[in-house]
Amino acid sequence: MLQPYLHKGILECGLDEAGRGCLAGPVFAAAVILPSDFNNELLNDSKQLSEAKRYQLRPIIEWQSIAWGVGVVFPDEIDKINILNASFLAMHRAIEQLKVQPQHLLVDGNRFKTTLQIPYTCIVKGDGKMQSIAAASILAKTYRDDYMNQLHEQYPQYQWNENKGYPTKVHREAIAQYGITPYHRLTYGGVKEFIQKK
Questions:
Q1: Domain hosting residue 113, numbered range
Q2: Which CA distances in Å does 108 have to 15, 71, 120, 121?
């Protein structure tokens, strides 16, 4: 069962990202501040939910949260600063979208880097432990999926509507056959080898 908060009585903001392991597309992050009495039995780590349940939960999270935000870092930035730093940057951009300043950050994972004067706690597999991180994982995942579905209209041969830019067999074969797009991450294995061959 997910915990409603780590510290009672303060505004905690859950942070999570989506798309770190993809060969194409941006990395998205979301920041969510939930009320301490938030309760929804469907809420869970986005990876444990069906697509339909993720999209069912998104408007509930947005409507019932105290504040939420989504941040994006595009492939050219990812290639310049690496995916770990890009994930942190996306989280900061999500925090900037919040209409309420959080008092503590709950970050999914084991590392975080920030210049913000806000205390934080890293929680490994936090999207399966804390409600606010689970909520952030759902927003990050669904907004990124929306974006990749739109890109699919432009580049249907990569089947991003199905693989969302992850290195599936179909995606890798499409790179070999059709080359790369402006949305591919040039420093990633599975893409950079193709560039070197050319």
A1: 12-197
A2: 6, 15, 11, 9
